[in-house]
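In this section we walk through a basic example: taking a raw amino acid sequence and producing a predicted 3D structure, encoded as discrete structure tokens. The instruction is simple. Fold the sequence below.
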Amino acid sequence: MSLELILAPIVDDLLEVGRALEEELRSEIPAVDRVTRHLLSGRGKLLRPALVILASRSIGEGVSKSAIRAATMIEMIHMATLVHDDMVDGAETRRGIATEEMHPILGIVAETVCRMSAAELIQTDRRGDVTMREEEYLSIAGDKTASLIRASCRIGSVLADGSKADREALSDFGWNFGIAFQIVDDLLDFVGSGRKMGKPVGVDLRDGRVTLPLLYMLKEGSTEERQRIAQMLDVCGVGTEESWEEAIALVKERGGVERTREVAGTYTERAKEAIDTLAPSQAKDTLLLLADFVVDRDG
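The resulting token sequence is shown next.
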């Protein structure tokens, strides 16, 4: 099932988020307006805003205006991380959400941004480091990607006035979903479709990023193979096309792909189990479908 079909029940909510994004990012300065329109035209699947909405709908009667505005804020943060620019203005994101609702939201956002920033710095510092351990990789994946996805679910549950148990369930869903999402994203760098991903296969590898499939290859490979990969990562992007293809082939031959899929599947199951206690609803069903989509996607 495609992501579009999975999110069909909330398509009107996502269209409203899209309109809100256009309104928030519109500028009277032509040059700035052209840049923001370009960013909006390629803003992707709106997965994180969808999670805000689904979390809110899964424990509430509907979706409030505050939830739409919070979903818009989350997407703006995500866009900012993609272009490494300060596109999210604090005063702007506070507009339209009641003060009593905004206090816990600001706390979630502040914590999340700190985690994401620290993870980006750590990942940059560990570039090409073949001594990285699996638990270190998972910690980076959690703070870099899962923290914002968890924040989406937490904010949605807060705005729906969910119980403590419901908020914790959706928070756990978001964290595990987010780690699975990042693991699969890293896996697709070796086995994905460049056309569907919008980038060539092997980009992370060429950039010296040590991800889970590569860690498993390094664990199972021979001393000579590990040394060869270490040398390639040490000179990010300098290797020949043949050498990068060789590295990708080694990851596949040494079981890196299969083991990585298994780990992603484990986190997906944890995400689904986390919301077992939520009352039956279309939103809950959609969250479960999204979890399955994460491990099945190819781009």
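Looking at the output, two observations stand out. The first helix runs from residue 3 to 6. The two ends are 13 Å apart (CA to CA). In the next section we compare this with other chains.
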